Amino acid sequence: MASKGTGMSFSHKSYRLTSDPEKAKVTGIVEEKLLNDYLHRIFSSPDHASPAATSRKLLNFQNLPEHLDQLLQVDSEDEESQGQDEGRLGPSIVVLDHTGGFEGLLLVDDDLLGVIGHSNFGTIRSTTCVYKGKWVYEVLISSQGLMQIGWCTINCRFNQEEGVGDTHNSYAYDGNRVRKWNVTTTNYGKAWAAGDIVSCLIDLDDGTLSFCLNGVSLGTAFENLSRGLGMAYFPAISLSFKESVAFNFGSRPLRYPFVAGYRPLQDPPRADLVRAQRLLGCFRAVLSMELDPVEGRLVEKENSEWQLQGQPTILLTLAHIFHHFAPLLRMVYLVEAVLMNFLLGVVEAGTPAKAQLVVHQVLDLLWLFMEDYEVQDCLKQLMMSLLRLYRFSPIVPDLGLQIHYLRLTIAILRHQKSRKFLLSNVLFDVLRSVVFFYIKSPLRVEEAGLQELIPTTWWPHRSSREGKESKEVREETAEERLRRRAYERGCQRLKKRIEVVEELQVQILKLLLNNKDDNGGEASRYIFLTKFRKFLQENASGRGNVPMFCPREYMVCFLHRLISALRYYWDEYKASNPRASFSEEAYIPPQVFYNGKVDYFDLQRLGGLLSHLRKTLKDDLASKANILIDPLELQAATMDDLDEDEEPAPAAAQRPMQALPMGGALPLPRPGWLSSPTLGRANRFLSTAAVSLMTPRRPLSAMEKVKVRTLSVEQRTREDIEGSHWNEGLLLGRPPEEPEQPLTENSLLEILDGAIMMYNLSVHQQLGKMVGVSDDVNEYAMALRDTEDKLRRCPKGRKDILAELSKSQKVFSEKLDHLSRRLAWVHATLYSQEKMLDIYWLLRVCLRTIEHGDRTGPLFAFMPEFYLNVAINSYSALKNYFGPVHSMEELPGYEETLTRLAAILAKHFADTRIVGTADIRDSLMQALASYVCYPHSLRAVERIPEEQRIAMVRNLLAPYEQRPWAQTNWILVRLWRGCGFGYRYTRLPHLLKTKPEDANLPSLQKPCPSTLLQQHMADLLRQGPDVAPSFLNSVLNQLNWAFSEFIGMIQEIQQAAERLERNFVDSRQLKVCATCFDLSVSLLRVLEMTITLVPEIFLDWTRPTSEMLLRRLAQLLNQVLNRVTAERNLFDRVVTLRLPGLESVDHYPILVAVTGILVQLLVHGPASGKEKATSVLLADPCFQLRSICYLLGQSEPPAPGTALPAPDRKHFSLQSYTDYVSAEELTQVEQMLAHLTSASAQAAAASLPTSEEDLCPICYAHPISAVFQPCGHKSCKACIDQHLMNNKDCFFCKATIVSVEDWEKSANSSTTSSAA
């Protein structure tokens, strides 16, 4: 095997040791005396040997083996100690007992040391027990959930509810609940966190049991343990679903072995350890010594200056060392205890450059003098140990431990051959290598040293998150300003230290993304691409019972480091290729989504399933991209779709009560992201076949088509990705809309695509979760301020109250100190300016990608849904999660980005090409609804081209029955808020009247109406004879449904509340009821907006549908008024109950909406329109003047010419809401009441009695005025016109209505007819 690091190449096969004396003399060996001095310096005698005895004997390569054997002799004490079994029963190699010592379903790693809970509360114990002496083992906590760790006897019986510590003779520590367990439970110890190490100690001489957390004793937990015949204790654990740990019984060096007198359950290989340390000493001596044959002397040098020159003397010396050393370096314990410590010492002692030289030399020598399988085992164990040390090291203020481990990792990965081996076989296949890019968050601020780093704490006094109205607060005092600045300086110190770690992590990824190291094999980047795609597949796949997900906190850190490395290589390529694009202009070309070169697994596309798109859009693929789909591919895809739902359940899932070793009895992919942090995955999760284009061997003419075939991810070559002279690789199938010049290297495009997928999989959820820390700070700060206010107001004589308040003040202050320091850590690792720019960059990449995909016409349907999701969610994260420290408005190109996103939402929320899952359509609708709520984003919508704005409003006015109407209605309402009658409030007025000091009342965003979009709406409603009738018909239908559902629900709620035997109401029912009420109010507001903008739709009866729409509107308004304003009615009783969940249900919201409509019809309209509206309203049989009087708090209309009496305070009145209803608006209501009072009196005097047989048999409110043809049935015109908007069948006989003719009682024939 060749070494490539020193400028020379040697084969270790040339230096195999031989015992043939005739071949002992090798050309190039130095003279005898110098050789003797050199070998004595390298192979110094053991400490107990006599120097005089060794000095009499000249050393050479003939007698060196004998000398080396003597040097490696181990004392008899060390040899005997390895077989010492007193006080212990069971195998000498201690593992978890997966064959019988378990309860529940558990997943056990290949080495039987890592375990994941896969049932309610599974329990497992070890194979070895102890009955005498002092023993210890360690547990590495991978997740911080519910677990009980400790000891049990063989007679303990567990089940899914009772685990270790819940029975006699079992004892446990639970760091999740901070308790100890032995049948009963009491407080004990500290809370643990993921990344902590628990040491479990048992002293069977004294009968005590104790625990340590990260090497710090938690004190004696239990005393007087049962001992004697038949009493032996097994290490054991019970853990809930998805919790995971890894045990160390002694197969690796204990992390905290300093507890005097305690032995690990598994004896360390003491004799081998002594030999390995002596051989390491010899090896280090070689690295610090050089031969000078010319001068005949030895020259001492630093390790970093030593070089392998090809001298036979040194080569043979190293061959003798590795003859003994190589087998030892395959042992886990010795790699960690000997080689790891040596390399860490090198890193800690010198500069990074010098350390790199030494590590490079060491790795060269390992590959030169060890067999391939030996060095591969050694490197695998070395990386496992490094990752374990990095993850489970305590957080110290300068992060020094993590920095050393990362520097060593970088030094190892800089060695090309080692890097390729680790990347191909270890980093993603065996290790959770993403851990290297994670910075563990300290749960315990004190132990992380944050108190020293941030001595002064501070917290913001208000929240700036969107959707929360920020209250006016007092000016910052001088003392608070000093505290804030001191806190910010501490945060800055912390951020700089974290940035050192982040830069090292980015260096690791830069090494893995190197594509210049393809000499002698595949470049690192293409190996990484294959592994990275499988990693994404494991986390994107929701199939199977085994959890495959990488923890979200790891994904966030991995994403940011990946973006940094990706942009570095992207801009580096641009520097050498001027025609390429900068990373600031990055996007994914649309052909990547349909040419099959990149596997998107079973992720949903915008147009539906991939197999469906290939069949339906094959002609478009052929015409626009010159791509033909192989018919066999289509058939195979179809069969896969059919079989998908018929997959048999895994065999293991049918045996729920087993503990299964991974790679053994469980035929499922190993749950790599919830298991122990270090161990292997035996059954690799095979990726689905990726569809790739066949590589063409000659240039394609414009009309030639390329037929596709399938390639697995592993089968792809560099040419399949990057392309060649006649092949565009990932970019094959370029549509005519796309530019010809390359963006960057194709491999970087695929990595960018994977980064966007990562954000969608879990990063966004984690960003939202960690905002909870900031929310906690705000809540505690508010509680502290309230407590301080109470202290100031409390009478001095109430000592008891003052004492309790002072105690509360101290608790809140301490909690805020802790949370503010933790918040500093969260901001530095997740919400810093640099992280914000990363998310912003992803947002802009997605926007450009969507824009380019949109230009391809029908091929846009091939785009995966997650691109739209990431565009929506990343904008939401930037807007809501990074404040108040950083504002999105400070980002470069902020206004342009807002406008581009607005254009995408406006166009695609009703895009017919998007027919995937309902979730993506709902997301687009909700994103647009949120967009029009806030001034900045609403102005962005107004900035998009006029054609797009009009198209958006036209889609919003489409009939509601064709799509999710509730979200559409919210959008229209938000365009109107601030313009309607009494519609300027930001908190519900009726709640502020009852609870004026309650700061937790739900708040609404400040109104920001758009007159521009309102004008577009008015113009569209005036155009075309069908737009307004179809839109208003659907609005009226939905209002009728929503209000009817609301009334039905409050009847059920009232009945449930009055029952003696069941005095509660289902919270879900309350929520649905409140939603129906809110929908009714919003629909009424949309009607108010329509009447205000385009009153002629209802009042211009030259339009064929105006009269019918006005009659329907009057009918619904009267129904709402009657239901809400009746004395002591159902609505009043439910409002009086003040049930939680029904806070929004009250008279004010719905009555002001109805009042706004009536005022527009009866006060603001033209004179002719007022008369029509008045006549229709009064003609409705449900009209009651008392309901109008109710609006002003009166039970009866006032006498003509008299002033309105003062409102009754016990009843509702608009006059009680003068903060929300202006004096002008109140005057208009008074005018409306006076007008209706007068008109009602006149109508009553002029009305004539009507025979019942002449009334419409449908509504019994109006006389018969229409006859249906051909069946001849009759009704009033209003009823039949309304019916024909939704149905063409007769009310009575279900015959199809061909025409409707006017009918008068005195006439025997019709005078006018109209087509149905």
TrEMBL record:
<dbReference type="GO" id="GO:0005737">
    <property type="term" value="C:cytoplasm"/>
</dbReference>
<dbReference type="InterPro" id="IPR001841">
    <property type="entry name" value="Znf_RING"/>
</dbReference>
<protein>
    <recommendedName>
        <fullName>E3 ubiquitin-protein ligase RNF123</fullName>
        <ecNumber>2.3.2.27</ecNumber>
    </recommendedName>
</protein>
<dbReference type="Pfam" id="PF25576">
    <property type="entry name" value="TPR_RNF123"/>
</dbReference>
<dbReference type="InterPro" id="IPR013320">
    <property type="entry name" value="ConA-like_dom_sf"/>
</dbReference>
<dbReference type="InterPro" id="IPR035773">
    <property type="entry name" value="SPRY_RNF123"/>
</dbReference>
<keyword id="KW-0863">Zinc-finger</keyword>
<comment type="pathway">
    <text>Protein modification; protein ubiquitination.</text>
</comment>
<dbReference type="InterPro" id="IPR045129">
    <property type="entry name" value="RNF123/RKP/RSPRY1"/>
</dbReference>
<keyword id="KW-0479">Metal-binding</keyword>
<dbReference type="GO" id="GO:0051603">
    <property type="term" value="P:proteolysis involved in protein catabolic process"/>
</dbReference>
<dbReference type="GO" id="GO:0008270">
    <property type="term" value="F:zinc ion binding"/>
</dbReference>
<dbReference type="InterPro" id="IPR013083">
    <property type="entry name" value="Znf_RING/FYVE/PHD"/>
</dbReference>
<dbReference type="InterPro" id="IPR043136">
    <property type="entry name" value="B30.2/SPRY_sf"/>
</dbReference>
<dbReference type="GO" id="GO:0061630">
    <property type="term" value="F:ubiquitin protein ligase activity"/>
</dbReference>
<feature type="domain" description="RING-type">
    <location>
        <begin position="1256"/>
        <end position="1294"/>
    </location>
</feature>
<keyword id="KW-0832">Ubl conjugation</keyword>
<keyword id="KW-0597">Phosphoprotein</keyword>
<comment type="subunit">
    <text>Component of the KPC complex composed of RNF123/KPC1 and UBAC1/KPC2. Interacts with UBAC1 and CDKN1B via its N-terminal domain. Interacts with RIGI (via N-terminus) and IFIH1 (via N-terminus).</text>
</comment>
<keyword id="KW-0963">Cytoplasm</keyword>
<keyword id="KW-0862">Zinc</keyword>
<keyword id="KW-0488">Methylation</keyword>
<keyword id="KW-0808">Transferase</keyword>
<keyword id="KW-0833">Ubl conjugation pathway</keyword>
<dbReference type="InterPro" id="IPR057987">
    <property type="entry name" value="TPR_RNF123/RKP"/>
</dbReference>
<dbReference type="Pfam" id="PF13920">
    <property type="entry name" value="zf-C3HC4_3"/>
</dbReference>
<dbReference type="InterPro" id="IPR001870">
    <property type="entry name" value="B30.2/SPRY"/>
</dbReference>
<dbReference type="InterPro" id="IPR003877">
    <property type="entry name" value="SPRY_dom"/>
</dbReference>
<feature type="domain" description="B30.2/SPRY">
    <location>
        <begin position="74"/>
        <end position="254"/>
    </location>
</feature>
<dbReference type="Pfam" id="PF00622">
    <property type="entry name" value="SPRY"/>
</dbReference>
<dbReference type="GO" id="GO:0016567">
    <property type="term" value="P:protein ubiquitination"/>
</dbReference>
